[in-house]
Write the structure tokens for this entry.
Amino acid sequence: TALKAVDLSNIVTLTGFAFSGCSDLSSVTLGSVESYDPTAFQGCSADMTLTISAGGSSVIENGAMYKIEKDASGNITDKILVAYYGGGTLNVSWGTTAIAAKALKGNTSVTGVVIPATVKTVNADAFGGCSNLASVAFGYVPVGEERPDAQTVLAKGTGTAGVFYNCTSLSSVDFTGVVNIGDYAFCQCTA
């Protein structure tokens, strides 16, 4: 498609596949999105730039979109990876507490993921259909940080909604810190 840039600063809900397949879309500006489906930009350019306008509850770090949740005092309680459209290896940001369902669903450009020890939950279908994803490493702790008490749980999936469902190139997984692997987590991982 010829659509190259969109300004969605006033949009509060972005549903699934809203811009799916817009392969020329390279610049998106978001505001304070309250409801976001990670498949909204599936099939768009791997080089797409996401920008969050001031005051939003989301941030972009190294090409990944995170939702920030705070308590009444303004302290961050959760940092959730909600989307990544880039390629290569994704180093999930230290301090992230969860990976949302469908966060990378259908991303055929990502080849590796490094998940920090702060992640407690990886939700169903988070990496579904990432056909070029070859390696995943859990439990990363950066130099100078201490390993948290958190332990990672791979959420229970159903049929075609396992955490890594249909990741046909996945050949290496480091399970450091993982204590529970849910149903169908690696279903159809055929490498």
The CA atoms of residues 104 and 127 lie 5 Å apart.
